[in-house]
Amino acid sequence: MGTIIDGxxxxxxxxxxxxxxxxxxxxxxxxxxxVVLLIGDHPASASYVRGKEKAAWSVGIESEIMRxxxxxxxQVILDTLDQLNQDPxxxxxxxxxxxxxxxxxxxxxxxxSFEKDVDGFHERNVGALSIGTNRMVPCTPLGxxxxxxxxxxxxxxxxxxVIGRSNIVGKPMANLLLQANATVTICHxxxxxxxxxxxxxxxxxxxxxxxxxxxxxDVKEGAVIIDVGINRVDGKICGDVDFSSVEPxxxxxxxxxxxxxxxxxxxxxxxxxxxxQIQHRV
Length: 282
Ligand code: NAD
Prior knowledge:
Homodimer. The protein has helices at 7-27, 43-58, 74-86, 105-109, 123-131, 139-150, 170-179, 194-198, 243-246, 260-279, and strands at 3-4, 33-39, 62-68, 92-95, 159-163, 183-187, 203-206, 224-227, 231-233, 236-238, 252-253. By secondary structure, it is an alpha/beta fold.
């Protein structure tokens, strides 16, 4: 039976650590401030953004949501980002994705100053991660690494298999695991005979976006399973791992919800504090 990794608990621990760092900054006269741009009326995005704002205030970070209608011209967003980049009282800027179809996602995301890019999506931060000089690291894979650290899972020499190669989860996840001295395999939609690979995994990270995609026959006995997926099925949230069949085979496993999700938000707060420290050279 796999021991369940309690992401909600560890996210609470992380938030406490962040709250202490916020306090230390405030004693130096610096109040970390996060601005989130929400463009359009995607219902899940609106709810994520509210969650992020609430979490920020809970650790003492000032937070503001700037809302724009879906039909807003991209130039308006770029101009807004230029102003926020110049504002010394704003330390973190996040553009909630997905953007409306008429906008160029990479152009918008890379307009955020790389020092205020708390999502870690700016090309410069992506490049830094790939050569191991990490600055702002994407929140979800960073949250997975923090979970592994809190749980004292030493991944040195492990064979880690990541399913998914997106820019926001799969690729940065693979880079972080490589930095932590795992042997890393990335699987994706074109991978042939994937089960042969996943069955070799000491650590399996699922970031596919398909409900209950990973089942017991995909998993090696005793593997550590990290489920990044957030899928809505019949009004309920489930992961990319079929928890009920995989949990008996795994040594440790993250549930969905209350696994990786809360850590993602905790890392956004940690990144905002880190951005404040970097900008004020603390
Ligand atoms: P994405 O759609 O951008 O990428 C999915 C990846 O899965 C792609 O690289 C694709 O190659 C791969 N894939 C698709 N079908 C496959 C198949 N049949 N076999 C193997 N690989 C396949 O998704 P994403 O943004 O990386 O998100 C992945 C999942 O993680 C989603 O469920 C998303 O909701 C969730 N997510 C969770 C958090 C969190 O905070 N926990 C954050 C971001 C994303």
